[in-house]
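Module 6 notes. Inverse folding takes a fixed backbone as the condition and produces residue identities as the prediction. Think of it as a translation problem where the source language is geometry and the target language is the twenty amino acids. Below is one complete input and output pair. Work through it position by position during the lab.
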């Protein structure tokens, strides 16, 4: 498990984040596949550690964590987007539904919980570059000795692109977005 201090919360608290091994293993197969591999859902970083060393990513992640911890009164699952101000973070794993004709899409049911439409592979279609990175986290509140307040933030997933919310029901109908599979080619880096 990877653990790191996100920051302090005045007057007497702190936020500790972690990425469990099972989530880290999954992310190595989805969004940390190599910074030069232009595929849907991949990032421009080789690893989680490399991504968190990007000051813009870390500072925005920490600011979102502080905001959730400040406003939450109980344990909560929370997703948030960060926008990188200087560069693309990777290739989208979803796209606006209205960019495609019905013949370019196919419905898929991922499991009993959710379904959506997926973009069919075609030579002229590419996953777009994006500067948006989504984090889905579980925030757990602890009160330690002498009133020290601590939030544990478990990172459940990270992906380049818009926050899709919970994967429940017909996600395409709810969000107006369609999915690319992980082998879908991304547009070339500038």
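Target side of the pair, the amino acids:
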């Amino acid at each position: 498990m990877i653990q790191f201090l996100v920051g302090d919360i005045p007057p007497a608290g702190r936020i500790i984040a972690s990425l469990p091994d099972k989530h880290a293993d999954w992310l190595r197969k989805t969004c940390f596949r190599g910074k030069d591999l232009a595929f849907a859902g991949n990032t421009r970083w080789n690893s989680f550690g490399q991504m968190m060393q990007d000051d813009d990513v870390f500072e925005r992640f920490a600011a979102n964590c502080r905001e959730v911890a400040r406003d939450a009164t109980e344990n909560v699952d929370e997703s948030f987007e960060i926008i990188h101000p200087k560069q693309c973070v990777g290739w989208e794993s979803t796209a606006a539904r209205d960019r495609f004709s019905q013949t370019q899409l196919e419905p898929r049911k991922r499991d009993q919980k959710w379904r959506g439409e997926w973009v069919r592979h075609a030579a002229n279609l590419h996953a777009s570059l994006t500067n948006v990175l989504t984090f889905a986290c579980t925030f757990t509140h602890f009160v330690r000795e002498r009133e020290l307040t601590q939030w544990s933030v478990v990172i459940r997933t990270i992906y380049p692109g818009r926050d899709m919310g919970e994967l429940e029901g017909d996600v395409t109908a709810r969000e107006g977005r369609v999915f690319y599979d992980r082998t879908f080619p991304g547009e070339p880096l500038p």
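Reference fact for the lab report: The mean pLDDT is 92.
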